[in-house]
Amino acid sequence: MPDADLIREVEQFLYREARLLDERRFREWLDLFTDDLRYFMVNRSNRYPPASKAIAVLDPSAAPDREDERAILDESKETLAARVARLDTGMAWAEDPPSRSRHLIANIEVEPGAAEGEVEACCNFIVYRSRGEREEDFYVGARRDLLRRVGGAWRIARRRLVLDQNVLSAKNVSVFF
Amino acid sequence: MQTDPHALVDAEHGLVSRRIFIEPEIYEAELARIFARCWLFLCHDSQVARPGDFFTTYMGEDPVLVVRDGGGAVHAFLNVCRHRGNRLCRADSGNAASFTCAYHGWTYGNDGRLVGVPYLKEAYRDGLDRAQWGLLPVAQLDQYKGLWFATFDPAAPPLAAYLGEMAWYLDNFIDRREGGIEIVAMHKWTMPCNWKFPAENFGGDAYHVPWSHLSAITTAFSTGVTARPEATGTMVSPGNGHVLICVGPEMVGEPPVGELQAYDRATRPEVAARLGPRFGLVNPIVGTMFPNFSLLRATSRTFRVWHPRGPGRTEVWSWVFIDKAAPPEVKEAIRLAGVRGFSPAGTFEQDDMDNWQECTETCRGVVARRMKLNTQMGLGRERFDPALGGWASDYRYSESNHRQFYRRWAELMAAAPDA
Questions:
Q1: Which stretches of chain B score pLDDT less than 50?
Q2: Do B50 and A74 touch (CB under 8 A)?
C-alpha cells in the first residue's frame, strides 16, 4: 500500500480537480490530462445472473453483454478539448444557462500503478447538477483513474466512469466528470 | 376523447394546437389510437440472432418480449404474466429456453406456451387449461431487412403496405451494402418532452440545424451538411405520415472523420447500384417512420424509438449501426461518432433535448396552450413528385413534412379507437 503522504497527495489532487469543474475552470481542468488520454463512461445493463431461476438458459455463449456498446462518453484529449471549446461558442444551448455542478468524490483508494511514476485511484462519485429554475439531476457511480507523474505534477491518463443507472434519468450529460 | 382531432390540427393552414403535447386525455387516446394500431419498431434481427435470444422493449407503454424460439422462429409477446399481470422478464436481453414469473412461478417456453404452473394438479385440479394461458402475442409481427416491427391491431395493413414508398427510403439507411447492418452501440435515456417533438424534428426540421447545432458544427463534430450555404435538398413525405429530410444527391453527410469520409466515397458506386436511379435524385439523411421510429445518417448512423412515457416524458432507445460489410476501423469510427454526436452526451443531441423540454413545459399554462404552433414554412409550395414517390417541398427548408405528420396523426386520432 502506498504511504500516507502519497495517498494524501493524490486525494488533494482529485479534490482540486473536482473544484475546477464546479468553478467551470474547464481550460485549467483540461491541462490535468495527458495527451494520450482515454476518458470513458458507461451505464449498466440488466442481465440475469447465472444462478437466476427467472430463466432457464438455452445457450450460455449467446447474447454476450458488450460494455463498449453502452459507452456514453469515449473521448480523447482532442475531443474533450473540442467539447470545452463548444461551450465557448455562445451557442451550446444545453449549457446556456450553465449547469451548476457539485462534484462529490468519496471512498478514494490509491494503488500502485503498473509503471514507474503511475498510480491507480478508484473512488465513488455523486455529481449533482442544478440548472435554470428547478432542474436537478444526480449522476452517481464509480470511477477508476490512472494517474501519471509528469514533470513533478500528477496528470490523468485514463478515466473510466460507470454510472449506476440503466435508463439514464437525466435528459443529457452536458457536464464533465 | 371529447375533442375532434381535426380541430387540433389544421394542416391546410399550418396550425397545430399545443393541447396535443400536454393534455392527459389526448395522450391516453394516442396510446389506444396510434400506439396500439400502428406498426412499431422492436429491435434489430442481430439482437435476437440465435435460438433463445431475447430482447425486452415497449410498444407505447406496453412491455414487450421479443424472443427467438428453439426452432428459430421470432415471436413478440406482451411481457406480462397471464396470472396476476406481473412483468415476466426483467432483463434487457439474454438467452433463455424458458421464462419464469417471479411472483408464483408460472413458466413459459420461449415460444410463449405456458409449460409450468406450480401445484397445477393439487390446487387447480383440472380447472386450468394451460393451452389457453400462454403469453399474449402481438397481432402481427414482421421484419423489413432485419428490422423487426409489430402491431397490436389485427386489422392493420401488412408491414409492406404500411411502409409503401418508405421502404426505399429505409434502404438508404439499412441496405446500402450486401449483408445489411449491424449494431455497434445502444443508449437509453429520458427526456422531459412530448414524444412528438423529437419525431417531427427528425422527420422534417432541417431548419434548426444551422442555429441549434452550429456550436457542434464549428467545433468539428459534424460537417453540418444541411447548414452549408451551397446545400441543396428537399423534404419528402412518402405517405402514411412517414417523413424524411433529404439533401442533394451529391452531398456527403458523414462526420468529419477521415475513415468515414473515405468510406462514403469508396462505397458510393456499390450503394448507387443497390439503390437504383432514385439515388441520383435525392439523399435521405434523417427521417421518421410514423409514429415514433426515427433514423439518421448524418453525423452518426443511428435509429431510435421515442417511447411515450406520459404527455411530458419520452424515453429514447437509440441504436448506432453501420454496414455489416464495413471494415473494423469504420465500425469503430461510427461507434465513436455516435457517442460523440448523438447520445445523451452527444454534442448535437444534448442541445435538442433542452429545446424540446421547454417546448413541452410551456404548454402547461392555459393561455400559452391557446397559442397555435406555426408550421407554415413553404405552405402550398409542396407538390407530389412521382420520381420521389412522395410529396416534396420546393426548398431545402420547409415544414411540409410537419404538416404531413400531423395530418396523419389527426386522421388516426379521429378514427374510432376499435376500428
A1: 419
A2: no
